[in-house]
Amino acid sequence: MHHPSRQFMKAVVIRKGGIVAVQDHLVPSVNDDDILVKVVAVAQNPSDWKFLNTSSNVGTVLGTDWSGEVVQRGKNVEIPELGAHVAGMTIGGTFVDCGAFAEYVKMPAELTWTVPRGTLTHEGAATISGGLCTAAQCLYHPGRLGLVEPPDSVSRPEWVLIYGGSSSVGQYAIQLAHISGYRVVTTASPHNFEFVKSLGADAIYDYKDPDVVASIKQVTEDSVCHAIDTQSTKETQQLCARAMGTAGGKLILMFPPTFKAKKLRKDVQFIPTLIYTALGRPLTLGPQAQYAAQPKDRAQIVGFLKKVPGLVRDGLLVPNRVKLWDGGMHAIPEGLQYMREGKVSGEKIVYRF
After folding, report:
1. What is the pLDDT at residue 3?
2. Would you state the pLDDT for residue 233?
């Protein structure tokens, strides 16, 4: 394993007008605490195409979730070793020197995790980091739900509502909550019921069922005080607010709360979360959406990532189902369009480079 001798690499770069193209791009240079990874597989996320619409992102490398092999280490890095199979998430579509849809990605070593030998393929490992870290931030961050984190488990099984159980974040949130000893009530399409149950959900309802709120209240005996809305649309925020128990509680959102949802329940804390604040660099998601790097968010995820290899080794974490998209890096614009059209359900589009 050696550092690439050439100065340029192929990467998926954002151009004017929100389009992407594969072009030559500088190989990022590593700092003392970084590693450089030769990317083997990447997974596509809904956030990827959302970065295309911000003019300040022109010239940046797209892509969040990756899996690959360590080819260079900064002078302070002892783990992972050169040649190790590692995976992680980066802030794609924001900076010229990081982004997963490229031949090489630069990462702070502490924000990656080593894939135990003989456990996961690069394709499977690529689906994990973004969804899993978001789920861990929602469940375990003291400023979010602050629940009991593995290897500990809760003494009395309380209910957690996870709206959107077959989404990437939903799948990992169900698995983590289950490992932590919580009882999980979730929503999904009927064709995903068996799959979501296999991840550890205790009760599953069709999100299109007009009685879904009543069903959640009944099975949980109106006791839900911990909830995650993985969709966080106007409609789902209100639905989750109504499904919360009589004592109120905390509802974690992927987007800011709507006025209507907050008006519905004064006894519920609506807490938006964004995993990118844990990655150590400020970012802009639009003219009104600027986010500073949050050291507390980073510290929480760094601590959690240390546990991930063990969870994978013990078979406690199942990756998202992979839809392998042929054509490698050059096929990414096509795969993004497919996702934009809402054709992805319960699986992740993955490319192998």
Report:
1. 63
2. 97
- Is there a contact between 110 and 33 (Cβ–Cβ < 8 Å)? yes
Q: What is the pLDDT of residues 108-134, one digit of tens each?
A: 999 999 999 999 999 999 999 999 999
Burial class (CB in 10 A: 0-12, 13-18, 19+), 95: middle
- Tell me how far apart the alpha carbons of residues 200 and 323 are, in angstroms, rounded to a whole number: 22
Residue in this structure with the two tokens 């861990």, named with its chain if needed: 136
CATH top class, domain 145-272: alpha beta
C-alpha distances in Å from residue 114, one per residue of 126, 128, 210: 12, 12, 44
pLDDT of residue 51: 84
In the block, which residue shows the tokens 């106007």?
Answer: 234
In the numeric block, which tokens belong to residue 85? Answer: 């199979």
- Which residues lie closer than 8 Å to 224 by C-beta, 6 or more apart? 159, 160, 161, 185, 216, 217, 243, 244, 245, 249
CB 25 within 8 A of CB 63: no
pLDDT single digits (tens) 46-68: 889 888 877 778 999 999 999 99
The domains of the chain are located at: 8-130+285-352, 145-272
Quick one: CATH architecture of 8-130+285-352? Alpha-Beta Complex (3.90)
In the structure encoding, which two tokens stand for residue 293, read together?
């790097």
Q: Are 172 and 131 in contact (CB under 8 A)?
A: yes
Distance separating alpha carbons of residues 175 and 132, to the nearest angstrom: 9
Positive or negative, the CA dihedral 297, 101, 196, 342 is positive
Average pLDDT taken over every residue of the chain: 95
Residue 278's nearest CA partner among 18, 88, 121, 4 is 88
Residue carrying structure tokens 């899993």 = 132
Whole-number Cα distances in Å, 353 to 25, 32, 101, 296, 324: 16, 27, 9, 34, 11
The 3-state DSSP composition of the chain as helix, strand, coil percent (nearest 5) reads 30, 25, 40
Element (H, E) at 214: helix 212-219
- Nearest to 291, CA basis, from 342, 255, 330: 255
